[in-house]
Write a structure and sequence with these properties.
Length: about 450
């Protein structure tokens, strides 16, 4: 069936316009995303935060960080509790007793003496002062080291929080990048579908080419919607890490600090907060072993107790006081001390092994992150080169298709390859940023 000459000229003009737009896109110029994708990607009402602000908010508001801060407060409270065992203690007691009657006794001259009144009031105080308490003294010293351990642990929690916040932030950036790739692919597929429809309408194409183009458009639409879901989840995850009650978005690609050299990173990792915390726990355990001599030390306690009672009795005057010195020497306790000594030595050995393992782990993390950084940067260079070649390949395929040298199957194949390599390029960009973040965290440079 022959087409109308005027319609054919209109179709040719439209095809030329579409060809120019597709050529511009294939040369690397960004094509606009679809309206739905753009609206969803830039949804109003979602707060945008910078990378530094995200780290600050995570450290200040995340529940894990706040719990770690309270652990320092708890460690300081344990010091006070340990000190209380060897500090003076003062207690007061007031007692009132009522009997069914006064207690009396017959005197030698035939009279009666009151032994205990029907109503008795006794008020006393007791001051207790430990004069010799080695175990309590040494326990308070170990508790003070525990404050240092809690402080170092809190610092490591901050490092882990900063790493988690950074990873999540970069995940949102990567989701935006993948959505951008999917949006361009959808726009490209839409233009190709329009081109195939116009060719079919003008009698210059065939139904098979138009169906292939429509199928490719539907496939890219599915990919775009999936990327929108991934972006939404990444935003929600960022909001959770930053302790927000709503999803959060990024304000762009962050510029991370330059990573340190391998030797410098390995040296810095040895003073990382988790290493310092393990070292503090080892000092506590070693001191507990050194302090086991106190298990055999005597205890000396002094008490002073003034009192007042009414009515007075024959044995208890109205006012008085009592002072006592108590010396306690442990001779045999059923083997309790020997079990405690073995326990403290085992705990010290465990703490030593944990510190050594922590040092090995830190070094391994630095080396792995450094290798990942090197390979991810190389992969990023290759991905960018592949993306450039894929864009050129698509342009050549479209030019050949317009000239009638190939079918639109070659164009669709080139389009799919471009989508794949651009997605790989976005993944390589994210892997490079993540590797930098991992190296900074492994070297103790974050936050």
């Amino acid at each position: 069936m022959r087409s109308h000459p005027l319609l054919a000229r209109c179709v040719v003009a439209a095809l030329a316009l579409l060809a120019l737009r597709r050529a511009a896109f294939a040369s690397g110029d960004a094509a606009p995303t679809t309206t739905a994708s753009a609206a969803a990607a830039n949804a109003e009402g979602i707060e945008r935060v910078s990378f530094d602000e995200a780290l600050r908010r995570a450290l200040a508001q995340n529940a894990t960080g706040r719990i770690a801060e309270q652990e320092i407060v708890r460690a300081e409270a344990l010091v006070r509790e340990a000190q209380a065992a060897w500090l003076p203690q003062l207690a007061g007691v007031a007692a009132y007793a009522r009997l069914d009657g006064a207690r009396v006794a017959q005197s030698a001259n035939g009279g009666t003496n009151q032994l205990l009144g029907r109503d008795t009031i006794n008020i006393s105080a007791q001051l207790s002062v430990p004069l010799l308490a080695p175990r309590s003294w040494l326990a308070s010293q170990r508790a003070k080291i525990g404050v240092d351990a809690a402080t170092f642990t809190q610092a490591d929690v901050r490092r882990q929080l900063a790493l988690a916040a950074g990873r999540t932030y970069l995940a949102v950036v990567a989701a935006h990048r993948q959505l951008e790739v999917a949006g361009r692919a959808e726009q490209n597929a839409k233009e190709h579908d329009d081109y195939a429809r116009l060719r079919l309408t003008g009698g210059l194409g065939n139904r098979l080419d138009q169906v292939r183009a429509a199928q490719d458009l539907a496939t890219t639409e599915v990919t775009t919607r999936n990327q929108l879901v991934a972006l939404s989840r990444a935003r929600e995850a960022l909001g959770v890490v930053l302790a927000a009650d709503a999803p959060l978005d990024t304000d762009g690609v962050p510029t991370l600090p330059a990573p340190p050299a391998l030797s410098a990173a390995l040296d810095a990792a040895r003073s990382r907060s988790d290493i310092a915390a393990a070292g503090a726990r080892l000092r506590i355990a070693d001191k507990a072993v050194d302090d086991t001599w106190s298990f055999y030390a005597p205890l000396l306690n002094a008490t002073f107790a003034p009192y007042a009672q009414t009515p007075a009795t024959s044995t208890i005057p109205t006012t008085g006081w009592a002072a006592t010195l108590v010396l306690s020497v442990p001779f045999y306790d059923g083997g309790l001390r020997y079990g405690q000594i073995r326990e403290t030595r085992a705990l010290a050995a465990e703490a030593k092994e944990q510190l050594a393992a922590q040092l090995r782990q830190a070094g391994s993390e630095v080396r792995a992150a450094f290798e990942a950084l090197l390979h991810s940067d190389e992969a990023l260079s290759s991905a960018r080169r592949a993306a450039e070649l894929a864009r050129e390949s698509l342009k050549l395929a479209e030019d050949a298709f317009h000239a009638g040298a190939v079918t639109n199957l070659d164009v669709l194949d080139a389009s799919r390859r471009l989508r794949d390599v651009e997605s790989d390029e976005a993944n390589a960009e994210d892997a490079s940023r993540q590797a930098r973040l991992e190296l900074l965290a492994a070297a103790g440079k974050l936050p």
